[in-house]
Amino acid sequence: xxxxxxxxxxxxxxxxxxxxxxxxxxxxxxxxxxxxxxxxxxxxxxxxxxxxxxxxxxxxxxxxxxxxxxxxxxxxxxxxxxxxxxxxxxxxxxxxxxxxxxxxxxxxxxxxxxxxxxxxxxxxxxxxxxxxxxxxxxxxxxxxxxxxxxxxxxxxxxxxxxxxxxxxxxxxxxxxxxxxxxxxxxxxxxxxxxxxxxxxxxxxxxxxxxxxxxxxxxxxxxxxxxxxxxxxxxxxxxxxxxxxxxxxxxxxxxxxxxxxxxxxxxxxxxxxxxxxxxxxxxxxxxxxxxxxxxxxxxxxxxxxxxxxxxxxxxxxxxxxxxxxxxxxxxxxxxxxxxxxxxxxxxxxxxxxxxxxxxxxxxxxxxxxxxxxxxxxxxxxxxxxxxxxxxxxxxxxxxxxxxxxxxxxxxxxxxxxxxxxxxxxxxxxxxxxxxxxxxxxxxxxxxxxxxxxxxxxxxxx
Amino acid sequence: xxxxxxxxxxxxxxxxxxxxxxxxxxxxxxxxxxxxxxxxxxxxxxxxxxxxxxxxxxxxxxxxxxxxxxxxxxxxxxxxxxxxxxxxxxxxxxxxxxxxxxxxxxxxxxxxxxxxxxxxxxxxxxxxxxxxxxxxxxxxxxxxxxxxxxxxxxxxxxxxxxxxxxxxxxxxxxxxxxxxxxxxxxxxxxxxxxxxxxxxxxxxxxxxxxxxxxxxxxxxxxxxxxxxxxxxxxxxxxxxxxxxxxxxxxxxxxxxxxxxxxxxxxxxxxxxxxxxxxxxxxxxxxxxxxxxxxxxxxxxxxxxxxxxxxxxxxxxxxxxxxxxxxxxxxxxxxxxxxxxxxxxxxxxxxxxxxxxxxxxxxxx
Lengths: 460, 364
What we know:
The complex is a heterodimer of chains A (460) and B (364).
Chain A: H1 9-22, E1 29-34, E2 41-46, H2 52-65, H3 69-77, E3 83-84, H4 88-96, E4 99-104, E5 109-113, H5 142-152, E6 158-165, E7 171-178, H6 184-195, H7 205-212, E8 224-226, H8 229-237, E9 241-245, E10 251-254, H9 272-302, H10 309-318, H11 326-346, H12 349-369, H13 375-388, H14 394-414, H15 416-432, E11 434-435, E12 438-439, H16 446-457
Helix pairs in contact in A: 1-4, 5-8, 9-13, 9-14, 11-12, 11-13, 14-15
Chain B: H1 5-16, H2 23-29, H3 35-58, H4 65-72, H5 75-108, H6 114-129, H7 133-159, H8 166-173, H9 182-189, H10 198-201, H11 213-235, H12 246-253, H13 264-294, H14 306-322, H15 327-363
Helix pairs in contact in B: 1-7, 1-11, 2-11, 3-9, 3-11, 3-15, 4-5, 4-13, 4-15, 5-6, 5-13, 5-15, 6-13, 6-14, 7-13, 8-11, 9-15, 11-12, 12-13
Keywords (chain A): Membrane, Transmembrane, Transmembrane helix
Organism (chain A): Paenibacillus physcomitrellae
Protein name (chain A): Spore germination protein
C-alpha cells in the first residue's frame, strides 16, 4: 500500500480512511475534527495509549491560538520528534504505540508522539537490599533507566545501542557498554545472540536472560539480572555489558563469573577485612546449604565412624525414635522446608505469616516430639534454609537450592565417597561453563578483567 | 590461552598424587638399597626432562601432540605412536582409580561393593574428561587451592607428632650411599611427570617461559622426601613394609582433638580422593585426545561426541575388568607401569625433537 505520490490530497485522505477501516471495532480509537467551517484538521489516536493532556496542550490549544492554517502546519512540522508518513501500515504501527495522526487540510499526515506511559516512580530496591549506600532501583521505563545509568557514568565511551525484539510486543532493548573497556568478542557474541532471537513476546529481562543462555539445561545462571543501578554501573566500569529492557525494572548484566553472584553492592563500602569476612561467610553458606544434608545422611547411616564418638552417639541418640533411614528423614524435612519457602513467597502478605508460624513452630516441634524426625535434623534443615538465603542474588539462590538433592542421593548410595565425587563433578561442571565465551568459574577471576581491559585498550 | 601458572598446577597434581600411585611403595621396597640415591638422581633428571619436553613443545606453539605427529610423521607411525602413548596415559589414570577403590574399601567404606565404587568413579571421570582442556585447568586450580591447606595441615601434623621417629629417618639416611636400580629411579622420577600432560594441554598455552623451573626442582625434592620419609618415620623402618598404602596407614594413625572429626584419615582421604580423581580425569583426557588424534586424518577436522562415547565405553570396560585382579598383581602392575613410563617419556621427548627436525627440513 505504499503511496507513490506523497502529499497528494485525495490519496492521503484515503490512507487515513484505510487506517480507520483496519482499526475498526476498537472502541478506544478516537477521530477528532477541529475547525468549524471546512473541517481542516483531523486527528486520530488511541485514547487508551495517548495522553489526553498532551494532546490538548500540543494539538488543540495551538490551533485555536493561530489565525491561519498555514501557521499551524508550520508549527506542526517544526515540532521536535514529529514524523511525516504516508504508508498505512507504518501509521497503524505508530498509532498502536501511542502516536496521534494529524491530517492538516487533508494533506500531509503528521505523526505526533502522544504516548502516555504508566510506570512506577524510582523507588528503593526491594530484591537486593543493602544496609548503606545508594538505594534507588530501576523502574519500567527505558528512558528513566538510561538516565539513572548515564547520570552515574558520565563518560563519552558509554555507548547505547537500541533494538526491538518481539514481533508482537515490539519491546525496546538498549545494549549499553563502555567502548574503551568492553571485550569486543563478548559484544559481538551478544549482538549475534540478540539478533538471532525470534520471539512473539518479550516481557522482561528475566525472560531475555533465559533466551540468551547458551544451553537449555544450564544449572547455573550465566547472566546477572539486577534492579540496582549501582551494580549495573559498577559492572559497566569492569567492561561488562548491560541490557536494559523496556517495561522491566530489571536489567541484564553479562558476561559474569561465579564470584559475581556472591558480591553484594555494599562490599565496596565496607572496610576490607569486613567485606572479606562477609564474602567468606557467603561461600561458607553455599558450602553448608549444598553439602550439609548429604553429610548428615552419609555420616549418620553410612560412614558412622567419621564423627568423634560423642557426636556419633548424640546423633544416634536423637535418631533413636525415628522409624526410617536418615535419607528419607532428610528428604521429608527438606521438602517441607521448600514448601514453606514457596508458600510464604507466593501467599499474599496478610496470610504469609500464618504459613511461617504453622510451618516453623508447629511442624518443627510437633514432628520431633512425635519422634518422626530427630532434633538434630531440625537444626540442620534450618541451617540449610538460612544459609541458602545468604547468597545475595536470588537467581543463584534458586540454582543452589536444587543441588543438595543430587548430593543427598549420592550420599545415600555411596556415602562420603559419593559426596566427594558429586562435589568434584560440580566443580568441573562449573569450570566448563562459559558465560558469553568467558570462563565462568576461575579462581583469581580479577586478572581476567584486568587482561580484558588491556586487550580492549590496545584496540584488537 | 591460559597463564603459565597452570603448567605448575599440572606438575603439582601429579606430584601430590604419587602417594596413591605406588611411589612410596616402590621407594620403601629399596629403602635400605638405593632409594635415597635414586631420589638424588631423580631431581635433576626430572627437571631436565621437564625442561627438554617444554622446549620441544614450544617449537610447536598451541599445537597438541597428535597435530604435531600427524603433520610430521607418516600416518602409520604417528597413529601407532599415539595409541601407545595413549595406553600409557590410560594406565596412569587406571592405576590411580583402582588403587583408590582399594583404599576406599580398606579405610573408609568397608562393606560396599567394589564394583559400585568403581562405577561411581568411572561415571565422574568419564563425564569430566570430555570437558575441554582449558576448563580442566580452571577446575584443577580450584581443587588444588582447596586441598593444599589440608595437605599442609596433615604434613605438619605428622612431622610434629611426638611419635614421629627421627631416628628411623636418620637410619635411612645412613643408607644413602648405594647404587640405585633403574626401577628405583623410574619410581622416583614419577612425581616430575606432570609436564608430560603438556602433550595435549600445550594447545591452550602460549609458549612457556619456565622462569620458575627451579621451583619444580625444590618442590619435587620436598615432595619426594616427605613421600618417602614420613611413613618411615611414623611406622618404623621395618614395620612400614607391612602396609600396602603406607601413607594412608600413616594418616590413619593421626588423631585430632579439637575438631568434630577425630581421625585425620578422613581429611586426608577427602583431599586425596578429589586430587586422585582429578588426576585420573586429566590423564584420561590426554589419552582420549591422543586416541582421537590417532584416528583423524591430516586434513579432516576432528569429530566430537560419538567417538567420545565409544572410547569412554572401552576405558570403562577395561577398568572394570582390570579391577578384578588381586592386590599383589596390582602392586606389581603399578611398579611395572612406573618403570615403563620413564622409557616412554624419554621416547616421547625424543620423538618431539625428531618431529621438529623434520619440520625444519620441510620448510628449509
